[in-house]
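Following up on my earlier thread - several people asked me to post the actual chain instead of describing it. Fair enough. Here it is, all 150 residues.
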Amino acid sequence: MANPRSPAVGTIALVLRRVIRATPERLFAAWTEPSQLRCWWGPEGVTCEGAEVDLRVGGRYRIDNLFPDGRVVVLMGEFEVIERPNRLTYTWRVDGSSGDSERVTVRFEPRDGATEVIVTHERIPDETVREQHRRGWEGCLEGLVRFVSG
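Reply from S.P.:
Thanks for posting it. Predicted structure:
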């Protein structure tokens, strides 16, 4: 029998926040333009080998992550909300995985000459995957900071 205190499958969420010295417009472009996305995406040690973005509601994206061991993990999904330059919501799925898509919302909120980037990742299937996502997003946000700073 399931533990009544356990969250239902896919109801686990993760929220990360990072203040970055750049405008919402600059960060939105870095997040949505493939040529920029390839420069910063990925946690430590992971390289973005390819990015495709059809930036419209119903449009799809694909990000190819090359891991140090040579594995390529493909992330893909569909845009649900686009409010340039303040908000993106899209589905998230690892190519070849089964089950429901997860959902990511990224908000770009002005803060005294900088922007707070708020990543909300929802519908996560379990705590192990949540921790993997946390590490991945922290690395991505570090890469974004380096990209817009350099």
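Residues 12-149 form a domain with the Alpha-D-Glucose-1,6-Bisphosphate; Chain A, domain 4 fold (CATH 3.30.530.20). That should answer part of your original question.
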